[in-house]
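Look over this one:
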Amino acid sequence: MLSLRTLLCAFDDSVPSAQALVAAADLAERVHATLHIVQVDPLFHAPKSHADGTDLKALYRSRIQVAVDRLLGEGAFDVLAPVLHVLQSETPADGILRCAAEVGADLVVLGTHRRRGLERLLAGSVAAEVLRRSSVPVLVASASTVPGPEAPVVAAVDLEDPSLRALEVARDVAAVFGASLQLATVRAVTPDTLVGTGPHRKRLAPSPEKVSREAAHAALGTVAEAVSVVGAETHVLPGVPVPDLVHLAERTRAGLLVVGTHGRHGWDRLRLGSVAEGVVTEAPCSVLVVPLAARPAAAASGGIVALHED
């Protein structure tokens, strides 16, 4: 069972982070979790005259309280009673991960500017960096919709590497929102796939191990039974993972898309790409990314001023 006792939401006064704050507050209320809000401001440095943090506390409490009340209604800040944190002298991704480790977050919630192409290459992506390195699930929030009776949770399942972790998380989140759960898998290689360059390009034949459509549906059913999911609708998508999953989310009017990630780095990431990062960039709904392999948590030392209430 997914434990959501502590949620961490990254906030920086931007529209995407406002969406994240709304989603985090809603989820915290549903599961009765403690909400931590981390102020993301990489250009901020504490003035020496304010080294005791007194003025920082007033400044950031005021900014975040105004934002919470504006987004969620007057008095919402007092009802939520979030624990506030301020990042100092760190990159946003490093600070978010460090804060998550320090507070023992069960889930990180953030927004994304959904940068693409050259803009993303030059500016980087805080969300992508957090996704690759987080040891806990990360919810990348969208303002479009939330899971519910008319907005299912769609979980992507890799039948060649069927980790049950992402599916267990998807099952529990669907239950929290009263949404149905649908399972989807994408067959890895299509008959017309071309590899190589120039005269060395060749057409790949279907793999002998490639399962039929019917067998894939049956395999999804078996995986569902393994995590006590009964009657879930299944989808077998014979194409490319990112566009097919995004199209499925659009077609089913999904409220949430759940994908797993191995957090690949370097050459593996360039060669294989990242389905999770691609889906986060393109999906019409919020995306919950679940790490499938154990990763060390960020060190919890220095760099954070916690604005706890007395």
